[in-house]
User: Fold this.
Amino acid sequence: MQTESTKHIFVTGGVMSGLGKGVISSSIAKLLQLSNQKVSCVKIDPYLNYDAGTMNPIAHGEVFVTEDGGECDMDIGNYERFLNQNVPRTHNITTAQIYSSVIEAERRGEYLGACVQIIPHVTDAIKERIRKIAKSENLDMLVVECGGTVGDIESLPFLEALRQLRLEDGSENVLFVHVTLAPSLDVVGEQKTKPTQHSVQELRRIGIQPDLLAVRCSRPLEISAKKKISLFSNVSAKDVFSCHDAESILTVPQTLYDQGIVDVIFKKFGKVGLVNTSANWDKWNIIVNSFLDSKEKVKIAMVGKYVKLADSYVSVNHSLKHAGAKLGKNVIIDWIDSEELNGNLENLSQYNGIIVPGGFGERGSEGIIKTANYARERNIPYLGICFGFQLAAVAFGRYVCGLSNANSTEIVPNTENPIIDLLPEQKLIEAKGGSLRLGANEIKLEDNTLAFKLYKSNTIHKRHRHRYEFNQKYLELFTKKGLQFSGYSDNKKRMEILEIPSHKFYLGVQFHPEFSSRPGYPEESFEAFVKAASA
Ligand code: GLN
Assistant:
């Protein structure tokens, strides 16, 4: 049982976005976990969307789906992977969620005639949400990452709430870590401290004095730069940490640890007598090292719709790397735009495996259908996820079952052969936000199938995010022609896994295996896919 209240670490960002605040927050949380603390992470997203579900992955990166069906910011995925633990959807807080809870409370008359304002009503709602997580999960420590950059208008109420929380709980219970940048204009050039100075000034202007600075830089932060930053930002030099470019994000905890960050945090929290944690470290180091050893290359083509931004499929990328690390292979991923592929598929012959991740809508779908068919015909290992499952079924309908106009009704609503069709319960749904089939559901697996061989069980639970599914009108025909549906859910109401037993490795899954893959523990379908691609 927890005896004292949860310690909070608030991580803010300065200078610009994309500094790796998510990785730094996850790394700090990892170090606390390795120090035997019960820890979790929260992400604040100050934008006005209710959740990440309606956001374009090319602009914002992947929508990460939690076990309990939240459509979250991709940082939640970082937390899950670093900590190897599930993070509930409540851990992704947005402006819309806070404001709607305040507005609903106002409509219920809960403010008893008061004029409802950002301070205290909105800030109280933010604090309450954070405290509730800490308390209900009995956490020793909670890392809260505030999205955006200090100085943004939209993050102000959140930063104000965090400031109040420190005032109320005391500095022995709340720490601020500010992530900034020390750029150098060329490889050997001087590391510039001015952006950090200004960003800390901005933070202090709103009443927050950071306790620790995590400074992103291309090479280790020089002592002279540290001292200068310390002087101008009122943070002791030993509390200024270098977060220089790393070979793997998994080495960031070690980089911070080597600079003494765990001691600094524990001392500031008045915690002494750290328990011996070497066993935790041994386990973690084995995992990290498996990502660093140089190994034989396996080339994978990822054919998808949102390849212009690698972050659109960040969990798929990581899952492939997890599988490679476990198998002692170096997975090289080439992202190929399915829209540009149409007709010309020969380029795909150089790859050891082809993966098609999730996607929505018509654009680029023909390229995916042809890719799925190419992998089948050429006996190239294929893993299709969600859209990649659905369009593999469409390809099979067209090229094996002779249904030349087979399609998904998502792409051609009145197609003659709707191989993929809307989930029945979706037919009356109009609102786009939060209305897909979401989160973990039970899936049953048939004996003597590839799926059973991978998961070694008749029952698995996997996360979903879709509106369409395989149309069972075609089940008999497809089965007769050699496609096996080896996994299903809801008493066979929906098909979840397809495979072609005569193929080297041809697997399509309606669910999203990438959301449950972790360093050291690759998700089974990825491991088997990379293994088949390496054979
Ligand atoms: N667009 C498809 C559906 O809604 C696939 C979704 C996905 O790939 N996540 O069913």
Observations:
- The mean pLDDT is 94.
